[in-house]
């Protein structure tokens, strides 16, 4: 099977897995995968559980739509992530409940909106940037992500939901799942005195594992 065909098959499988387990409902969310000659993106207004491999949108390296159904309205967001994070091969955007809940809270630190609560969120997700609200599909979001210059592999879009990148689609999906569970803990524990990992503990994890 060609690399592109394998990527299409993997997108169908993992998007269905996210949908079947409730990480995406309705037609919320979108996913992209880097190819040597462009990008695959989920079509707009499609349920992640209903993707068809041959209808997945293909864009060239400049972001022009070249085949498949009309791409997600978040083309600019996906392209900006892939352009500024050369090691990222895939991007997952969801409206998963707890990460979206955290994205609506007033008093989160925009530069570290998912603090290091557990080792696995440090290893899988790393620091998370909160980006200001713009309407879905606004090209401004692409520019805001470009302005981060690749410093964050994961972001929360205020009042909207998470965006997570990964070295493979499977690792981007695993990171999106870990982020969701951590946001659930953070919301559940809100108001209680919290013990976060120290910066020395975070540094030890980063030195030992990097971002897996
Ligand atoms: O929130 C939105 O409208 C988009 O970010 C989204 O999640 C689904 O849009 P499409 O991928 O264009 O269906
Ligand atoms: Zn969205």
From TrEMBL:
SMART domains to which the protein is assigned, alphabetical: Aldolase_II
Gene Ontology CC terms, in alphabetical order: cytosol
Gene Ontology BP annotations: pentose catabolic process
Catalytic reaction annotation: 3-dehydro-4-O-phospho-L-erythronate + H(+) = dihydroxyacetone phosphate + CO2; 3-dehydro-4-O-phospho-D-erythronate + H(+) = dihydroxyacetone phosphate + CO2
Residues annotated as domain Class II aldolase/adducin N-terminal: 9-187
EC number: 4.1.1.104
EC main group: lyase
Family: Belongs to the aldolase class II family. AraD/FucA subfamily.
Protein name in the entry: 3-oxo-tetronate 4-phosphate decarboxylase
Annotated function: Catalyzes the decarboxylation of 3-oxo-tetronate 4-phosphate to dihydroxyacetone phosphate (DHAP) and CO(2).
Family annotation (InterPro entries): Aldolase_class_II_sugar_metab, Aldolase_II/adducin_N, Aldolase_II/adducin_N_sf, OtnC
